[in-house]
């Protein structure tokens, strides 16, 4: 694996841009439901027949050696699989052992404070966190390890099956306010968002809004937790006029709910296949992050490097994610 050193400014610009190359070269993940209809609450991803055929990985860390992790909510199943595969711990026990502080706080704590965390598995940091890290001259080493996507959720009784990116921008700018203007019923559109410190809000602003107009939602339309947003869209006023967003993996494998459906965007439905081949238009990488001074024989460095091996790639894919393949390490330097 090569090490590429770039300036902090270049890194931050790169971190703020969707890695198209990573999407196009992503390894095809384990097939998952297309996401057209969410049918039940799934606490953990189910193993597919393909993943069950994968040879059992050889543990190389003890449970005591395994580095403390932090990161994004949607990465919890992957962290648990990493713990199980590298230590031999039973997966159910590993799942109960993983907790996270969520995206923004994970980046801040890891970069700015003296925590026990030794590695992040995490979605992109919000802009304000990137600025904090830059001002503090923080050095971090990261690489993309998988692809996820921003997806839009509606009630299954809503007849609208797809929206274009421009229609979505106009909805969230307050320019389109009624579903009849996009092929739906004569109902006012209720557009949910997330808080500024959430990973999905970061992707929403980066991949869709891109510096354009964005209306400020009332507090009741910006729930703090992803699960609350999903519940709110399903239950809002007992009607089908709400819309919101999440990341694909979370809604498809971790917290789906009866009565909801994912929209196609620009006529492409989100799925593992469309994320892997880059045809779904709102894809983005997620990352493994360590401190650049981590020793070659440290548990975090060994785990970080292991993710590029066949066993590490299998770990990502059997957890239900789309892997991007072995990557060049990127280091922030002065």
From TrEMBL:
<keyword id="KW-0813">Transport</keyword>
<dbReference type="InterPro" id="IPR024370">
    <property type="entry name" value="PBP_domain"/>
</dbReference>
<dbReference type="GO" id="GO:0005886">
    <property type="term" value="C:plasma membrane"/>
</dbReference>
<keyword id="KW-0564">Palmitate</keyword>
<keyword id="KW-0592">Phosphate transport</keyword>
<keyword id="KW-0449">Lipoprotein</keyword>
<feature type="domain" description="PBP">
    <location>
        <begin position="139"/>
        <end position="297"/>
    </location>
</feature>
<comment type="similarity">
    <text>Belongs to the PstS family.</text>
</comment>
<dbReference type="InterPro" id="IPR050811">
    <property type="entry name" value="Phosphate_ABC_transporter"/>
</dbReference>
<dbReference type="Pfam" id="PF12849">
    <property type="entry name" value="PBP_like_2"/>
</dbReference>
<feature type="signal peptide">
    <location>
        <begin position="1"/>
        <end position="21"/>
    </location>
</feature>
<protein>
    <submittedName>
        <fullName>Phosphate-binding protein pstS</fullName>
    </submittedName>
</protein>
<dbReference type="GO" id="GO:0006817">
    <property type="term" value="P:phosphate ion transport"/>
</dbReference>
<dbReference type="InterPro" id="IPR006311">
    <property type="entry name" value="TAT_signal"/>
</dbReference>
<comment type="function">
    <text>Part of the ABC transporter complex PstSACB involved in phosphate import.</text>
</comment>
<comment type="subunit">
    <text>The complex is composed of two ATP-binding proteins (PstB), two transmembrane proteins (PstC and PstA) and a solute-binding protein (PstS).</text>
</comment>
<keyword id="KW-0732">Signal</keyword>
């Amino acid at each position: 694996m090569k090490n590429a050193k770039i300036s902090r400014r270049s890194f931050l610009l790169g971190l703020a841009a969707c890695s198209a190359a990573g999407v196009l070269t992503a390894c095809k993940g384990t097939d998952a439901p297309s996401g057209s209809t969410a049918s039940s609450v799934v606490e953990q991803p189910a193993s597919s027949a393909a993943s069950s055929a994968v040879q059992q990985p050889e543990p190389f860390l003890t449970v005591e050696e395994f580095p403390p992790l932090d990161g994004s909510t949607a990465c919890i199943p992957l962290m648990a699989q990493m713990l199980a595969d590298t230590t031999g711990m039973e997966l159910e026990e590993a799942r109960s052992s993983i907790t996270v502080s969520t995206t923004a706080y994970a980046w801040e704590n890891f970069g700015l404070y003296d925590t026990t965390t030794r590695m992040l598995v995490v979605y992109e940091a919000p802009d304000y966190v990137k600025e904090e890290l830059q001002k503090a001259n923080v050095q971090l080493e990261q690489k993309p390890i998988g692809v996820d996507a921003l997806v839009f959720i509606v009630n299954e009784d809503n007849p609208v099956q797809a929206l274009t990116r421009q229609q979505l921008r106009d909805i969230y700018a307050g320019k389109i306010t009624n579903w009849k203007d996009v092929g739906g019923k004569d109902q006012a559109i209720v557009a949910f968002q997330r808080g500024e410190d959430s990973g999905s809000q970061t992707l929403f602003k980066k991949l869709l809004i891109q510096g354009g107009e964005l209306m400020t939602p009332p507090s009741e339309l910006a729930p703090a937790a992803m699960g609350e947003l999903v519940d709110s869209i399903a239950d809002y006023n007992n009607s089908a006029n709400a819309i919101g967003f999440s990341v694909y993996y979370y809604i498809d494998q971790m917290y789906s709910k009866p009565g909801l459906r994912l929209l196609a965007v620009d006529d492409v439905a989100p799925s593992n296949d469309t994320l892997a081949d880059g045809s779904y238009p709102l894809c983005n990488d997620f990352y493994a992050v360590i401190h650049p001074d981590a020793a070659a024989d440290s548990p975090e460095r060994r785990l970080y490097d292991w993710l590029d091996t066949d066993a590490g790639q299998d770990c990502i894919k059997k957890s239900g994610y789309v892997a991007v393949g072995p990557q060049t390490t990127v280091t922030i330097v002065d």
